[in-house]
Amino acid sequence: xxxxxxxxxxxxxxxxxxxxxxxxxxxxxxxxxxxxxxxxxxxxxxxxxxxxxxxxxxxxxxxxxxxxxxxxxxxxxxxxx
Length: 81
Known about the structure:
With 81 residues, the chain is α+β, with helices and mostly antiparallel strands.
């Protein structure tokens, strides 16, 4: 009878390679958010798609403190007669 074993105790790495390094070489953008919607991880492709370095996005909430707002004019209601 063969024995079924669970994951090894060192699940955080694969042959000494951190999981982030594996995600960083994907050709798809990968983003991870915490429960409050803040960026906690972006891979290199996600940086390219979003147009900002991860250092600028990490810890920021999506839609609330987006760095895109820095280069877009603020939304003002149209002034009318």
